Amino acid sequence: MNGADALLATLVANDVTACFANPGTSEMQFVAALDRKPEMRPVLCLFEGVATGAADGYGRMADKPACTLLHLGPGYGNGIANLHNARRAFTPVVNVIGDHATYHRQYDAPLNSDIPALAAPNSLWVKSADSPDAVAGLAAEAVAASFGPPGGPVSLILPADSAWLETKGEPIIAQRTVRPAPAGSAVDAAAKALKAAAKPVILIGGQACRAEGLVQAARLQAAGVRIVSDTFVARQPRGAGHFAPSRMQYFGEMALSDLAGVDLMVFAGTTEPVAFFAYPNRPSVLVPEGCKTLTLAARAEDAVAGLAALADAMGAPKQGPSQPLKRPEAAPSGPLSAAMAGLSVARHLPEGAIICDDSVTSGGGIAVPALTAAPHEVLALTGGAIGIGLPLAVGAAVAAPERKVVSLNGDGAAMYTIQALWTLARENLDVTVVVFANNSYRILNIEMARTGAGDAGPQAAKLLGLGDPSIHWVPLANGLGLPAVRCATAEEFETAFAGAMARRGPMFIEAAI
Amino acid sequence: MNGADALLATLVANDVTACFANPGTSEMQFVAALDRKPEMRPVLCLFEGVATGAADGYGRMADKPACTLLHLGPGYGNGIANLHNARRAFTPVVNVIGDHATYHRQYDAPLNSDIPALAAPNSLWVKSADSPDAVAGLAAEAVAASFGPPGGPVSLILPADSAWLETKGEPIIAQRTVRPAPAGSAVDAAAKALKAAAKPVILIGGQACRAEGLVQAARLQAAGVRIVSDTFVARQPRGAGHFAPSRMQYFGEMALSDLAGVDLMVFAGTTEPVAFFAYPNRPSVLVPEGCKTLTLAARAEDAVAGLAALADAMGAPKQGPSQPLKRPEAAPSGPLSAAMAGLSVARHLPEGAIICDDSVTSGGGIAVPALTAAPHEVLALTGGAIGIGLPLAVGAAVAAPERKVVSLNGDGAAMYTIQALWTLARENLDVTVVVFANNSYRILNIEMARTGAGDAGPQAAKLLGLGDPSIHWVPLANGLGLPAVRCATAEEFETAFAGAMARRGPMFIEAAI
Would strands B18-21 and B41-44 be described as parallel, antiparallel, or unpaired? Predict the structure, then answer.
């Protein structure tokens, strides 16, 4: 076998079985080796930002990494924004970055660049396999590193000669590090502080927001401690049967108003909350003045075990509150808005659906009615780099083919990685795409006022609006292989969304709001 | 004025008057300041790779930088691939990268990342303006640095508070470094070596391939020295009235076969040629064995002055050969191919047109007949990162609004930065887009064999083909605001291309080959 075979053997031996790829010449050995390792599923993405975002969606749902296959520095570069999001989601991802043959690097050919430098800011681990015999061991290291805890993207550079030269390449099994439970002293300290506090809050994030974490958090809420989740969570169950914590508000002043009077914040699976952006004369840290803070479980620790131990120590009941099933009864009518669309989503979302949310200003309209919809899970934009809603859906659908995936996108966000539509069509993934077409980067109109920059004049307005010309989403989606429909009324959206939920396969809905 | 005003004042004072942008919250002060500085033209791009590629196209045509406006690390990340190309084109580009307020960085908010580390590999110069008073001086430094010589992208990080706080901000004029002429001794040495050589070649690149460089190179060819250009040149005139040097072949073995027997290579505005990729048992350096090499003018030197002095020293005639005007007489007919399309391009290309070439395997069909077309200029893919043909056209058209721009793209390449079509429509740019739709990354089918990886089996084939489903380019382009037509025969292409050349404004042609 050659180095590419060795890489695939070790990846597959470690249960890495999906590859989101856009290869070039330097990756041809890896591509050829795929035919000798059918356990690895190659998924072509027409842009690397789709590949990395798909790997994020896959990792969030599969709890194991997919690999990407990227073409040198520029190919990796195209994937950076969604790797930034994956880093903020702590999602395991193994990037395989093809490079020039080791001896060719010195000549600085046109595609040469400093790949380790480019990869470092968004990779927990970066190494180059500079000989074929090094490939298997480093691949196992990469897989292990991607799991963390708390996990994230890693980057294995594969020079072309390391791929084409022969090696023994016995598959090597990755040695994963287990998340340690928080120390008993941390649990005791948290219990003591919570009992002493007048108005405490537990802030949960990451693993603590998964199903098993929410169960324990609900017990603590039943014991009288308010539970608040991070604003943007990588993966969180929602709907009937799940506990619904309140959520840190996006805007700092609203967050602090919500937390007014809180005298203790305990962190489980997350850290001190900070404002998404700084604004003139507004605070960066979203902890009320005088409020004490305390960590129950760091991100790398087992926050679920920590919450369970804390609930026991607090004498919490065995079971906390959970949401009832209460779908909106009446079909919405009248002009379409995000709120109206949200009612239809809540009415028709099937049990076990996965929502990939990159809907920016339209997201709020869905979040409230979905609290009592059929049980589902939400994958949020964790790193603020828009353009992940479509790629996440690609990856989630590959990881969980039996579940309906709904991708909610702002129009500005959807355009970032629009190439993903083609992969949805090619792979016939069971994904319903909704684009909220308000012809605007609406969030920026809000943010402009908040930053004290004043109202947009004609020049500034040119950078905030998408309406000149309006994007025609239906032909665009058709062109990339998807059936598509435009909805301008709540009735039209209700019909389209209900229809999409009732059938399998990819579908595109423009919500003209 | 605030720091954002100061930045714009210094940029405009240095004749930086185009801004290719996709801003976010941290850039709102810059956006607002645009209304107070109407000399700066903001051009919205729906993805940052479009913005950076447009800045490259603008810089190549205007011989001065445009600025980009990018949103923190992820926004810059999306622009990396085309900045890689700009670095390889030595194009001046001033990236303005918004960042969190200086005091907010420590909190590692979701959009925080190591911007200097991300920017370094593709920036000649990276600095952060960490106070408003530093903005004007650093902006002038950035502009100066972008000019080199030989020039390239630079990155100025603008924290939000440096943008919103007050400053005096008198505009500062950049101090540019002039390209020095090569030393007389280098000219003498080259002349002596050329006279002594049996079969010498002068390899020209960069500035030596511009109009004035070609004039001097032609004189040397007239004196009996074969002139060869780099394979991929940032900007090169072609067609009637221009000297047509031969070109380094893309594939190494073809290049070495072409150079067989050459005993001296003299470099002007470029360096020793190397293979684009390494392949098993094939050479990396494309200099024949035993051939001497010698640098007349380094990239940072004035290669035109060097060639002129060398031509004088060689006693070359005052004028060398140039191409006749000889358009293909007969309209092509039959099935469409890149070669047939090339005939139509050569027949109808107007004088002064600018070709932005990202057509990969289809490019050869145009290059030959275009040698005797009306005089035009070609902007090539310099760094191998596909997805620049559409963005380059945006920038070239903004820089040279009176000239027809023709953007030639492979289908795989076009999908990378397809968002550029919308900007062409919005700005009503005089650009004709041609996409050669062969439903394939065809170059990779060729490269797969060359790398010794063998034939593609069913898994590998999934990563090389774009035909399942076929992209419907006409609705896709319509959806993004462009009139579009599909041509499946040479006659259809002839009619469509002639029509597009005869009218102004954006137009999309699918060449189904």
Answer: parallel
**Single-letter residue type at B334:** G
Residue pointed to by tokens 């016939």: A428
Residue of A52, A68, A70, A78 to mutate, testing the B interface (most B Cβ within 10 Å of its Cβ): A78
Alpha carbon distances (Å) from B147 to B92, B150, B177: 5, 7, 8
Sequence-separated (6 or more) residues with CB below 8 Å from residue B462: A42, A44
C-alpha distances out from residue A113 to A110, B50, B455, Å = 8, 20, 29
* Residue of A31, A120, A469 with shortest CB distance to B425: A469
Q: Tell me how crowded residue A289 is: count the other CB atoms within 10 A of its CB.
A: 7
Task: Report the Cα A290 to chain-centroid distance in Å.
Answer: 33
Sheet holding A200-204, edge to edge: A246-247, A226-229, A200-204, A264-268, A292-297
CA atoms within 13 A on the CB side of B351: 4
How far does the CA of residue A375 sit from the closest CA of chain B (Å)?
28
A301/B contact by beta carbon, under 8 A: no
> CA-CA distance, A73 to A450, in Å (whole number)?
37
Indicate whether A450 pLDDT > 90: no
Q: Using DSSP, state whether B429 is helix, strand or coil.
A: coil
Residue corresponding to tokens 């308010």:
A226
User: Which of B44, B452, B459 minimises the CB distance to A38?
Assistant: B459
Q: Which residue intervals of A246-330 are DSSP H helices?
A: 252-258, 303-313
Q: How far is CA A424 from the centre of its chain?
A: 18
pTM recorded for the entire structure: 0.98
d(C-alpha A161, C-alpha A2), whole Å: 9
Give the pLDDT band (50/70/90) at residue B506: very high
Q: How far apart are the first and last CA of chain A?
A: 56
What is the C-alpha separation between A423 and A44, in angstroms, rounded?
7
**B425 touches B482 (CB < 8 A):** yes
Displacement of CA B439 from its chain's centroid (Å):
25
Q: Which backbone phi and psi does B390 adopt, to 5 degrees?
A: -75, -50
The pLDDT confidence band at residue B224, using thresholds 50, 70 and 90, is very high
Tokens representing B504 are: 């102004």
- Each residue of A208-247: b (16+ CB within 10 Å) or e? bbbeebbbbbbbbbbbebebbbbbbbbbbbbbbebbbbeb
3-state secondary structure B349-361: CCCCEEEEEECHH
Alpha helix stretches (DSSP H) within A206-294: 211-222, 252-258
Q: What's the CA gap between A46 and A56, in Å, rounded?
A: 17
Q: How far is B1 from chain A (nearest CA, A)?
A: 12
Contact criterion met (CB below 8 Å) for B340 and B490: yes
Query: Is residue B395 within a helix (H) or strand (E), and if so which, with residue range?
Result: helix B389-399
Identify the bridge partners of residue B158 per DSSP, sorted by sequence position: B98
* Cβ proximity of A361 and B25 under 8 Å: no
Would you say the ipTM is above 0.95? yes
Residue B134 to residue B138: CA distance in whole angstroms:
6
Strand order in the sheet with A153-159: A41-44, A18-21, A66-71, A93-99, A153-159, A126-128
For residue A449, pLDDT beyond 90:
no
In whole angstroms, what is the distance from residue A109 CA to residue A120 CA? 22
Contact criterion met (CB below 8 Å) for A283 and A195: no
Whether residues A103 and B443 touch (CB distance < 8 A) is answered with: no
Residue length of chain A: 513
Question: Which amino acid is it at B290?
Answer: G
When pLDDT is averaged across residues A129-138 and rounded to a whole number, the result is 98
pLDDT for A321-338, tens place per residue?
Answer: 999 999 999 999 999 999
